[in-house]
Amino acid sequence: MLEKAIEQLNTYFGYSSFRPGQESVIEKVIEGENALCVMPTGGGKSICYQIPALVLDGTTIVVSPLISLMKDQVDALTAAGISAAFLNSSQSPYEMTKTLEMAKSGEYKLLYVAPERLESVSFMNDLREMKVPLIAVDEAHCISQWGHDFRPSYRSIGKLADCFPDRPVVLALTATATPVVREDICKQLQIKQQHTVMTGFERENLSFSVVKGQDRGKFLREYLKKNDKDAGIIYAATRKTVDQLYDSLKKGGVSVAKYHAGLSEEEREHAQERFLNDEVKVMVATNAFGMGIDKSNIRFCLHYQLPKNMESYYQEAGRAGRDGLPGECIVLYSSQDVQLQRFLIDQSLERERIPMELEKLQGMVDYCHTENCLQQFIIHYFGDLDASSCGKCGNCTDNRESHDVTKEVQMVLSCIVRMGQKFGKGMVAQVLTGSRNKKVLDFGFEDLPTYGILKEHSAKDVTNLIEFMISEELIGVSHGSMPIIYVTEKGKDVLLSKVTVHRKGTVVTKQISDDDP
Ligand code: ADP
């Protein structure tokens, strides 16, 4: 069977061999085992179900949430001589009935359907008449409440497999899934956890960095000037910032387009087309832009504001360098953006999801404060603990010498303990720097022995040190109505002088304020 698969790969797609993960996924599927395939964007997930679809008898159903992507896929397959079609809300009832009739007569090798369709009983009944060897679930993390993009309609997929007299194989595919989400996907789709294939999370051609304490507007202008021949995306967290950035860059002569959900469909399509066709170099956008965009020559992906979690970040940043040539992924960090993201989370979600989203946001903040390899941090986050340092991210190439900061760290930890582990980092920093703030005085913290012991530093520097300590897991954060910091087991070891702490960033740094254009 595998030989036949390679033959099909060659005939229809023109590739001579599978990538490592592809072969093992395809093997499982062809042998009739449910499987989960976790590969980064651009890793080649589509082939993992398209080849089995060609090899197996009948019509493979592909559940995909992205209408535009479905059409692109079907067009590409049709162009390669593979019969395929899609069913989604963009079609007229007539088109839909016609496609369904053709599907029932076994006309297609692949049928793409939107998850919402699966909520219709009559649609499910129609599907029952088809011979379906395989159900591929694209963007499978949408099935999990623990994921970053939960879609309730995905819950119907579990039932879909039960519809058919001969239970089809289920293949779940995703680019972003933490260990918890992977476990949930497996549980819901009856996949044995050992049938998870995870590969290539490292994107060797991408170099990651975090820019902190700099004037973002100035950094951006200089960066774009230096890279004016390259295509890139600048992500911002809100439509308003996208509009502002777009105006200011355009005024500055940058070849730029903008994209966010507040624009009309026509405007969005036009902007996207111009960017895809290299008519403009830079796209300024909210996270509404990029799903299903296959532009290979994106050289940089800058996050002007902090993304809401690592999953979103890696997915967005991963749009750089899809052609395998170098790509640069930079987060421009400002602590105000953490507040902004907290606000957005608080506004947009059901209450019970908020603590989890705040925890994910903390992961993103930790990324911005770690001094370890950034690529490795990302890969660890996604559950692969074997990853080694990349050697080229902002942290790997940071040649500053590291200092022993054990004493300062102990002061911070001791202050947290003395304040009863009931406050956030801002308040702790104020006590350590000897603030006369009303709240500090109301609690009588000026009497603590740790009051003012770091007074030669700014509150901002001390907050940065605390952020670093959080990323080092010396301090934990519990996300109730307000984030509260506490000393972890690892932190206790530092307090007891069992281990020392080193840091490259000094505690004393010049304070530079952000300047939004
Ligand atoms: P994903 O869905 O994981 O984001 P795609 O399936 O779109 O990725 O594949 C990304 C790119 O890699 C596509 O251009 C695809 O044609 C190419 N590709 C996939 N598999 C192979 C392979 N075995 N050999 C060479 N190129 C491949």
What does this entry look like structurally?
The chain has helices at 2-13, 20-30, 45-55, 67-79, 93-104, 121-128, 157-162, 179-188, 216-226, 239-251, 265-276, 310-317, 335-348, 354-369, 374-381, 406-418, 425-432, 438-442, 459-471, 489-495; strands at residues 35-38, 60-63, 84-87, 110-113, 134-137, 169-174, 196-198, 206-212, 231-235, 256-259, 282-285, 298-303, 327-333, 403-404, 475-479, 483-487, 502-503. It is of the alpha/beta class. Residues 508-517 have low confidence and may be disordered. It is globular. The structure holds adenosine-5'-diphosphate. Adenosine-5'-diphosphate binds at residues 15, 18-19, 22, 39, 41-47. Adenosine-5'-diphosphate is lined by residues 15, 18-19, 22, 39, 41-47.
Brief summary of the model shown:
It contains 20 helices and 17 strands. With 517 residues, it is α/β, with parallel strands linked by helices.
Write the layout of secondary structure elements.
Elements: H1 2-13, H2 20-30, E1 35-38, H3 45-55, E2 60-63, H4 67-79, E3 84-87, H5 93-104, E4 110-113, H6 121-128, E5 134-137, H7 157-162, E6 169-174, H8 179-188, E7 196-198, E8 206-212, H9 216-226, E9 231-235, H10 239-251, E10 256-259, H11 265-276, E11 282-285, E12 298-303, H12 310-317, E13 327-333, H13 335-348, H14 354-369, H15 374-381, E14 403-404, H16 406-418, H17 425-432, H18 438-442, H19 459-471, E15 475-479, E16 483-487, H20 489-495, E17 502-503
Parallel strand pairs: 1-6, 1-7, 2-4, 2-5, 3-4, 5-6, 8-13, 9-11, 9-12, 10-11, 12-13
Antiparallel strand pairs: 14-17, 15-16
